[in-house]
Amino acid sequence: MNLTDIALLNLRRKKAKAAFVLAGLLTGVATMVALMGLGSALTHEINHKLEKYGANILITPKSDQLNMSYGGLSLGGLSFDAKEIYQADLAAIRKIKNSANVAAVGPMVLGRTEAAGRPVLLAGVDFSEASILKPWWKFAGKEPLDGQVAPGAEAARLLGLSPGGRVSLGGREFTVSGVLEPTGSQDDHLLFMPLAPAQQLLGKPGLVSLVEVAALCKDCPIEAMVTQINQALPGAKAVAIQSVVKGRMEALAHFKRFALGVSLLVALLGGLVVLVTMMGSVKERTGEIGIFRAIGFRSGQVMRVVLTEALLLSAAAGLLGYLAGHLAGELALPLFSQDGGGHLAWDPSLAGAALALALICGSAASLYPAWMASRLDPAQALRTL
Known about the structure:
Protein name: ABC transporter permease
Order of helices and strands: HHEEEEEEHEEHEEEEHEEHEHHHHH
Subcellular location: Cell membrane
Number of helices: 11
Main location: membrane
Distance between the termini: 24 Å
Strand order of the largest sheet: 9-10-8-12-6-5-14-1-15
Keywords: Cell membrane, Membrane, Transmembrane, Transmembrane helix
GO molecular function: transmembrane transporter activity
Number of strands: 15
Strand content: 15-25%
Structural class: alpha+beta
């Protein structure tokens, strides 16, 4: 009979103690797995939803221009070498290293024209990408198609435009398909139409004035994507819209820190349960340990018996805790998910972390009781029989 057999026999004889230690560790591991699994699933959901709040990278032509506008009040500016961006070059954005993180690329051409005798700013937009970049856009009427235009709310008021009406732009007649509902931004003052007709009307075929990019930044730093885009488009300047990026990252980081903090706290409590239970077990087995020492067991062997018991229970708690935590996370996910659905993915790395956590907590909490058992005086231990 080797030391492992002795440890297994002890666990069978002390089923209640073993079950208590197992339950303590299992609870800690299951809580960690459930929280980390929930955190991962909800982070994915939050990240997916946050992507709907617009672009986080803006690409503009390189120039020596000093922007002299603030809060919608423009005082003009000086431009020495401003160039438009070639629309064909935008394909390079889809080939950067982190191209999988690019959710949408929205080119926009801007130019001055006249409507109803007033100078207005016309914006040509790729409306298929705008649905991702500007999901808050709502039209009273319909989005414009070829031959149609949609004014912002303020532009419609000043120009007297309404859905179904007609307006002359650059000597051509366009139908007003709808009016963009107020956004509180400069969009309220623009006229919108599809990109290609706007490029033709403004005399800028194949050119765009700026590009908005929505990047999925859960797995990559936004700065890295900005650098990659700048390298792919040497004639343009990409910048991160810091307020949007930092808001997303802080929301995700806060949730992860909460889940990690609670997990560590519960794991610590599980370790304390193991420590107290194993110390009580050692005291109860003082006579048994005295017999071991009397028949020739060395202090190191006694210590190994106690640690083997703890490691066997810890391994079982790690495996069962992962299964229990995954099941608990699945049951709890509908309560936290806004969509009320979703599933936790089986994560081998999380399973490995659960097993490692259980082994570390179990062995660390058992070191002192094992050391106490190994230090017992055989003669004194035998007197307890």
